[in-house]
Amino acid sequence: MIDAIIQEVRLSAFQADQKDEHAGSFSSTPGGDSGIATVYFGGGTPSLLTGNELKRMMQALYENFQVWGDAEVTMEANPDDISAKNLEEWKSAGVNRLSIGVQSFINHELQWMNRVHDAAQSLQCIHLVQEAGFDNFSVDMIYGTPGLSVSDWEKNITSLIGLQIPHISCYALTVEPGTALKKMITLKKRADVDPEQQRTQFLLMTDWLELAGYEHYEISNFARPGLRSKHNSGYWQGKHYRGFGPSAHSFDGQTRKWNISNNEFYMKSIKAGFVPSEHEVLTNIQQLNEYIMTSIRTLEGTDLEYIAGKFGTEKSERLAQSINRFKNNGNVQAQDSKIILTREGKLFADGIAADLFFDELPVP
């Protein structure tokens, strides 16, 4: 698989040269037209990669594309995969940021989520990361599970603050159709999620982390000043990116492309000299709606002046009128041509964005 991904990097670079373009990035990560600003090893379990495998892929990027000297290079890692030896190898390979799937410091919560690691490993892995010299890393947490009390959630957040975690991503538990959890809930073998419980825990989390000096720069993301995720921010800002590997996505500002997910077919296709993928071309309205959907979740909000410049003054003016009902109920505020969600409005971000979407005009 590593050989196939490296070959895809080379094929992608050749295609970019043929079109006189630059690459955006690696592993579905935002970069820019002038080179690669971020690299992200994610999806599956990249922390199982050896240091040599990581080095080979990074070398392929440097040989085929322009990579910024201060590029953010992130790797997803599970607590049970983190050891002093692995951290040393990852750092040697060029990884300078980790995204760690801790999820909770409460043992019964980890057991409920069927996590392999326990609370002690969660704490130990963070200490190892800090001792290895990683001053930029993120910890993922989950709230709103049926058994998570407010006191347990406060313990989780207090632990994060006490450990001086640079970046924190907190996600509400969602129950997807067709999953084992959904089936167990339907059969009454597991308790369902409680929206009011999730609302309470979200608002408390926001208060606790902001009071501790964290910047709530996106609905699910908090960072110490200057330590926002460049990787995620690139997505929310609509920057171009390239992804390599099975299921990886790419975006050039108008066309979204995704590789097929079948590993065997992917490797056979790459060996034959082509990247097996599908694509869609976004209309002007789809691009506008995507901008609204992602930007409204951020601290800076949706920029009406940007919309006027890229999509037309009429769209900007219509959107300014559309937010009045949300301003009246206290969910949205307007600041310097920006549409920004209030504390309460963040609870309804997806619904507000959907209500602000523009309809496609029928094709004559």
SSE blueprint:
Elements: H1 2-18, E1 29-30, E2 36-41, H2 51-64, E3 67-77, H3 84-93, E4 97-103, H4 107-112, H5 119-131, E5 137-143, H6 150-162, E6 167-172, H7 180-186, H8 195-211, E7 215-218, E8 221-223, H9 230-236, E9 241-242, E10 249-251, E11 255-259, H10 263-271, E12 277-281, H11 284-295, E13 302-303, H12 304-311, H13 313-322, H14 324-328, E14 332-335, E15 338-341, H15 349-356
Parallel strand pairs: 2-3, 3-4, 4-5, 5-6
Antiparallel strand pairs: 1-9, 6-8, 7-8, 10-11, 11-12, 13-15, 14-15
Could you explain the architecture of this structure?
The protein contains 15 helices and 15 strands. It has helices spanning 2-18, 51-64, 84-93, 107-112, 119-131, 150-162, 180-186, 195-211, 230-236, 263-271, 284-295, 304-311, 313-322, 324-328, 349-356, and strands at 29-30, 36-41, 67-77, 97-103, 137-143, 167-172, 215-218, 221-223, 241-242, 249-251, 255-259, 277-281, 302-303, 332-335, 338-341. A hairpin with a 3-residue loop joins β10 and β11 (255-259). The protein is globular and about 55 Å long.
Strand order of the largest sheet: 2-3-4-5-6-8-7
How would you characterize the largest beta sheet?
7 strands, mixed
Silhouette: globular
Count the beta strands.
15
The radius of gyration computed from the alpha-carbon positions, rounded to a whole number of angstroms, is 22 Å
Q: Total number of helical segments?
A: 15
Helix amount:
40-55%
- The span between the termini is 47 Å
pLDDT averaged residue by residue? 90
Q: Which assembly state applies to the chains in this document?
A: single chain
| Beta-strand fraction estimate | 15-25%
SSE class: alpha/beta
Order of helices and strands: HEEHEHEHHEHEHHEEHEEEHEHEHHHEEH
Q: Low-confidence segments, ≥5 residues, pLDDT <50?
A: 20-33
